[in-house]
Amino acid sequence: MNLIAAVLFGIALIHTFAAKSFEKLAHRSKHHSGLLHLLGEIEVVFGFWAFVLVCTMAFVVGPQNAIEYAESRHYTEPLFVFVIMIIAASRPVLETVKGLVAVLARAMPMRTAVARVWLCLCVVPLIGSLITEPAAMTLAALMLAPLVFHDGLREWKKYAALGVLFVNISIGGTLTSFAAPPVLMVAATWNWDSAFMAATFGWKAAIAVFINATGVTILLAKHLVDKPSEVEKAGGELPMPIIVAVVHLLALAGVVYFAHHPVIFLAIFLFFLGFTKAYEPYQSPLILKEGLLVGFFLAGLVVLGGMQQWWLQPIVSGLEPTALFFGALFLTAITDNAALTYLGSLIEGMSDAAKYMLMAGAVAGGGLTVIANAPNPAGVALLRGGFKDGAISILGLVVGAIIPTAVAAALFLMFIP
User: I need a labelling partner for 153 at 20 to 30 A (CA). Which of 241, 300, 374, 393 fits?
Assistant: First the structure.
């Protein structure tokens, strides 16, 4: 069964790289465009193959064992990402953040559009250390979409911006011990608190985020046009009452605070849904579809990834610190970085140097692929409409993320504690 699971995991990885090809076939097919379009949705890939795994398991080892395995997985992270995406993308939260970004952009000594893009690629990922990475990804993607990810910009420059966004989100959450999924997996076991994270990883990550954001903003600068912000041009919408914005922000803070307690944050989410219905004139449509697709993707990764420990853990435990860094950097691209650090937390007697290298490699490589970091599927769901054929090429993402990944890796390797 382990071998079958590994094969299906490999097929799922290949499927993610081929997803854009399915989208192209869907546009040409007359009779099966619906099925091909479904298979072309990157967010569907791992959920689909997880379903295949459970069905295969039911046939090979029995239905009861398959059900027990599926129920033994922990789905807190998929549920959390689903909830935080929807709340962070709600109009009151988004308008509040856009307003703050607009104020900062006008105060900076550069064109407003350039300043906004830089803030979305630099400051918002670092704020992810407080509001969590999935929330930062949602806010940054929604604000960048009309500025960068549109038909007027060449594809390779969009992939450069996407690569920087994904890498910066992955490393930008390392200033605290609770915002980045790979850090959460080991913080309690290794006694890493927020002060340790900021001193050991955070300041290096902040420098890398600054360099990456500045470089790609310079690349994009001549294509960025100053336009009225969404808040400024929303003349046809009712003014946002302060109390509505405050309730939404409190819901966001509550979900972040109770991120490890699905019963609590789901209760907050249900209250939030009721509140948005009660104050519907001040709301925009909630991104329920995008949130559900991302949750489905991550849940599928949980099911498929749960049976990869037998070959991943020997690799992680058998490498020297420097080799472990590069091994983690590579393995993160083909598996979730949180799963990778979790496997590391199970290894007895791991040295401090090995722990540092594992974490550094895992977060540095978190922007290379869609599955490398939990917030990445959220970014794909929100930004794919700005790319050709409405789909993001995984190879294009890898190429776009290489330079910012190298910058992050260099900072982590240059200042080893």
Answer: 374
